[in-house]
């Protein structure tokens, strides 16, 4: 992602109505991704947990927005301090910013940059929630979200994108969030689930998605919103780089979906809708850091590699015994790592910068920088997230009781259920027609 730069007064940009409008549209597209993620996750859980899953994503829109305005934008994009964190008192409460004040070196207002970056901050903790389905208290999750963005997301965003941030200065390429968003969230998910443990019945009871149409709808909304997420990260539309990123986003996502389905057919014998949706998301994740550095042919390679690797990775939770409910680790962590490292191989040196990867004559230097960025963010997020979860678990408690988990977290935490069938039927015909007695099979309680 483009960051603040210093320009000479003679070259100082002026506000561009076109770029400002473009970035506001991109910001709205990224905002739509969080409800899209809620549908994606909400359809993947059992019906008794679907509202809770929706809410775990949706609440991020409230909590993170307020914290971003109060201090998050200042910590992430304020004046650098020690290459680790930022601060600018004018950004506190967004109160010291002029309405036409431009983001340094760009033709968009600071307010536009701030709201675009806000949407990234919103969706990142929401991504974590998919690993924790069925078993976390909603109040504890809300508090975790507030603490996590404060001590993990805001600093990491500064490292990666803030002027003076140590990974930014090192030259790590992360066009739109492979490290700051996806590796960050995936590593956090792993840290938390290692603390709170497995769901009741993990590896024993069927835990099938209750609504695959919702999953497909969510994946479609994510795919749509991701064009704003990726193409908008160049902060303008003047030189064609954003257009390349737009094309690469589509190409890599398509390649990853096909690669996942091919692996699934060879491995399990079927092409599933869940595989198609998951493969698409894997491609979106992988191209996020790489799409501004590779060609469309490189994007095909990035997507195909990520599709296969993520499809292989989702089964690791059964092998190693960690309960990543909706495959956040397998898709976002693995996909983010793959996409970030593949920059070091497939960067052409002819798109966002002149940095070339190994396959384009650039040697191993950029791959080394990418590896530093990947494992620094992974380690920091994993450890700090686990510590936060442990503190909350030992104080207010992170998990619901076993009885609540078995009965369904929706009713206990939200006093609601996703579907109300009590009013189904009705009408004159149904009142005048005797209903047949239910069969023994229909009377059995189904797994919700």
UniProtKB/TrEMBL annotation:
Keywords per UniProt: Ammonia transport, Cell membrane, Membrane, Transmembrane, Transmembrane helix, Transport
Ammonium transporter AmtB-like domain mapped to chain residues: 22-419
Segments for region (Disordered): 424-448
Compartment list: Cell membrane
One Pfam family hit: Ammonium_transp
MF GO annotations: ammonium channel activity
Domain of life: Bacteria
Coiled coil stretches, renumbered: none
Membrane topology, record value: Multi-pass membrane protein
Sequence intervals crossing the membrane: 20-41, 53-77, 108-128, 140-161, 181-200, 212-229, 241-263, 270-291, 297-316, 328-351, 371-392
Keyword Cell membrane among UniProt keywords: yes
GO cellular component: plasma membrane
Keyword Signal set for record: no
InterPro entries cross-referenced by the UniProt entry: Ammonium/urea_transptr (IPR029020), Ammonium_transpt (IPR001905), Ammonium_transpt_CS (IPR018047), NH4_transpt_AmtB-like_dom (IPR024041)
Comp. bias (Low complexity): 429-448
Family to which the UniProt record says this protein belongs: Belongs to the ammonia transporter channel (TC 1.A.11.2) family.
Quaternary structure and partners: Homotrimer.
Record's function text: Involved in the uptake of ammonium/ammonia (NH(4)(+)/NH(3)).
Protein name (Swiss-Prot/TrEMBL): Ammonium transporter
The species this protein was found in: Streptomyces xanthophaeus
């Amino acid at each position: 992602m483009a960051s603040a730069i210093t320009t000479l007064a003679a070259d100082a940009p002026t506000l561009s109505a076109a770029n400002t409008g473009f970035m506001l549209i991109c910001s709205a597209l990224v905002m739509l991704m969080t409800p899209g993620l809620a549908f994606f996750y909400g359809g993947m859980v059992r019906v008794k947990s679907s509202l809770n899953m929706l809410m775990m994503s949706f609440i991020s829109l409230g909590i993170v927005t307020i914290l971003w305005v109060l201090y998050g934008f200042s910590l992430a994009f304020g004046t650098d301090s020690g290459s680790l964190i930022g601060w600018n008192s004018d950004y506190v409460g967004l109160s010291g910013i002029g309405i036409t004040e431009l983001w340094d070196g760009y033709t968009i207002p600071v307010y536009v940059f701030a709201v675009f970056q806000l949407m990234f901050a919103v969706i990142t903790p929401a991504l974590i929630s998919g690993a924790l389905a069925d078993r976390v208290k909603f109040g504890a999750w809300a508090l975790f979200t507030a603490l996590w963005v404060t001590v993990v997301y805001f600093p990491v965003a500064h490292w990666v994108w803030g002027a003076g941030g140590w990974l930014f200065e090192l030259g790590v390429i992360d066009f739109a969030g492979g490290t700051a968003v996806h590796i960050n969230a995936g590593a956090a998910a792993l840290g938390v689930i290692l603390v709170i443990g497995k769901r009741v019945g993990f590896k024993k009871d069927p835990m099938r998605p209750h609504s695959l149409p919702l999953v497909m709808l969510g994946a479609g909304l994510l795919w749509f919103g991701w064009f704003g997420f990726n193409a908008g990260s160049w902060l303008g539309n003047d030189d064609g780089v954003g257009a390349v990123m737009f094309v690469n986003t589509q190409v890599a996502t398509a390649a990853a979906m096909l690669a996942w389905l091919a692996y699934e057919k060879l491995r399990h014998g079927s092409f599933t809708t869940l595989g198609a949706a998951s493969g698409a998301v894997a491609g979106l994740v992988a191209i996020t850091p790489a799409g501004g550095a590779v060609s469309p042919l490189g994007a095909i390679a990035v997507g195909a590699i990520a599709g296969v690797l993520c499809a292989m990775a989702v089964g690791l939770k059964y092998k190693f015994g960690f309960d990543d409910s909706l495959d956040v680790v397998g898709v976002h962590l693995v996909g983010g790592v793959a996409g970030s490292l593949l920059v070091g191989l497939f960067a052409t040196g002819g798109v966002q910068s002149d940095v070339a990867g190994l396959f384009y004559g650039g040697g191993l230097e950029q791959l080394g920088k990418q590896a530093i960025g990947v494992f620094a963010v992974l380690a920091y997020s994993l450890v700090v997230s686990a510590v936060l979860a442990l503190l909350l678990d030992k104080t207010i408690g992170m998990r619901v009781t076993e009885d609540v988990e078995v009965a369904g977290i929706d009713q206990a935490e939200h006093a609601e259920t996703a579907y109300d069938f009590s009013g189904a039927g009705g009408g004159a015909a149904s009142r005048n027609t005797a209903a047949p007695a239910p069969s023994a099979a229909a009377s059995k309680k189904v797994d919700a």
